[in-house]
Amino acid sequence: MNHKDYTSSLLEQIRNSVRDINTIAENETFEFFEKCVPYEVVKSVGNVFITGCGDSYCAAIATKPVFENADTSTKTGMVPGTPTMACRNIEFSRYQNTYSGWNPLTLDRNLLCAISISGSPARPNEAAMRMNEHGGKTVAFTANPEGKLAQNCQYVIPMTLPPYDLAPNVTSYYSSVFSLMMFGFYMSKAKKQLTAEQAEACRKGLLEYVDSYDEKVMDELSQKAFDLARQWEEDKVDCMDFIGDGPDYATAFFGSAKMVEAFGGLTTNDDSEDWCHINYFLRDTDHIGTFFVANEDSPAFSRELETIAVACSVRKHVAVITDADEKLFPEKAVIFKVPKAKAVWMHPLMEHIPMDFVAGYIGCWRGLRPFRNNEEPQCRDGDAARFRASKIEII
Question: 22: which of 171, 314, 323, 330 lies 20 to 30 Å off by Cα?
């Protein structure tokens, strides 16, 4: 069995990710964002809310640090950015400020970034309509500039995605993450939190990080993911935990989602502290796979090392995605060594790749249709009220 002999839409998206992100970057320059949302609009923003569903919510978590702290490309050189919240869609549209009320003095300084590739699900549209109703600004991040979300937002970032087939989506995720990161730095540049040179350095550093996932690195990650997936399949692993902290929690969340979408596995996601309080007690540990994201520059790295050691003491199948020295981890853990980024905020754009490969290979072997397409019982009610036909209410 050779990992290169397997193909699927998901696997091809992963293999093309470096090329595709560079293609997206050619279009999404700071000048591009200025045409979409003028300087004077973002200069006045006092609070940013980022929301979306599923992968789009993961993108919100992943990019929050870029808005909140303008990065100067050193480990501790963050300068104040714009207060930012990554909101679950239902939390924003039905609960945000329902108890204390919106502050009338800052309403027009609130900006909502609503993410939806298709622009059709009800909840992102509801969030945008609610922000409009309360006097804030709204920006749609969507690949459908004529869709509902674009129509319901005051400004539109028309994302250009490479073509892909229906599958557990990686392309839409890294497209959303890259677009949000660049918009965050565009905002910091407009507000003079970063100089033009610093903003451009952040952009250049991010693309250098993308390119560090060269052919050799991708081949090594693919081979290791193939070997791990084959072992886990032989050992009948069907349930998986995913653990990460801060922006790396977005990676854990996203990785867990790909397993569900690719082969219907049961997954959970958590942080390195709460895992020790809750999922540590799960039974049948020989059939649970556990993924950690633990980079050396993470403020939670010392806790992550402890939690990984605890997991290895009670479970057979533990994998770690890290840029740190492999000697820091228990020998029992399978280590996915990924390239080191210049800044902590860069990691979520690429570090999910090992998890994606595992999902892709297991999906190939099980021969299941992504998203249970046309399979029982998920096909019974189609899309009725699942997310497109859901009732919109403005609170």
Answer: 323
